[in-house]
C-alpha cells in the first residue's frame, strides 16, 4: 500500500511537470480560461456568500453566549469573529467545501472525457491533453483569493448583523472589536494559504480524473477519492503553513 501511495505521489508531480510542457495556442487557451473562470469562480459565488454570512453570524452568537463574565469586555465578540473568519474559516473551511464542489466537478468532467475517449482523441491530434485540460483551471483559480476576500467580508458582516440585531452587542463595540489589535500580516497569511489551496484544488481532482480507469461508476468513485485527498491535503498544508508563517 505504501508503495502504491508513493507511486501516486510521484505520478502527480510528473503530471505537474507535463502540464507546463507544449503549450496550447493562446487563441484557444484564452477561451478555455474564461470558461473555467465562469465554471469554477463565478458559479461558486452563491454558495460561498451564503455559507460565509451565516457561519460568521454563528461565530458571533456562540462567542456572545459564552461571555458570561461581566468583567470580560463585549468587544471581544467582534475580535473573535474577525480572527476566526480571517485566519481559519474563510481560507480553510471554504476551501474544504470547494474541494467538494469544484473538486467533484473537475474530476467528473475530466473523468467523463477519459471514459468517452475524448482525451485519447486530443493526444492523437498531437495536443498536450494535460495542458489543454488542467492549465486553464490553474490560471482560473488564481482568482480564488477574490472568492476568499468576499468570504472574509461577508463572514464579518454576518457576525456584525447577528451580534447587533440579536441584541448581544452594540454596533460601535463590535466595530471596535474588529479593529482591536489588528495585524495586517494575518490577511497576507490567509491569502498565501489561499493560493496554495487553489493549486491543490486545481491539480488533485484533475489528477484523479485524468488517470482514472473504467466506466461511469468509476467516475463517481474517482470524484469521491479526489474530494477526500484534496481535503486531506488542504488540512495538512494548513498546519504546515500556519507553523511556518505564524509559528516563528
Automatic annotation (TrEMBL):
Question: Mind telling me which residue stretches traverse the membrane in this protein?
Answer: 40-65, 85-106, 138-162, 182-204, 225-246
Organism in which the protein naturally occurs: Flavobacterium segetis
| UniProt entry keywords in alphabetical sequence | Membrane, Transmembrane, Transmembrane helix
Gene Ontology terms, MF aspect? phospholipid transporter activity
What are the annotated GO cellular component locations? ATP-binding cassette (ABC) transporter complex
Q: What is this protein called?
A: Phospholipid/cholesterol/gamma-HCH transport system permease protein
Is Transmembrane among this UniProt entry's keywords?
yes
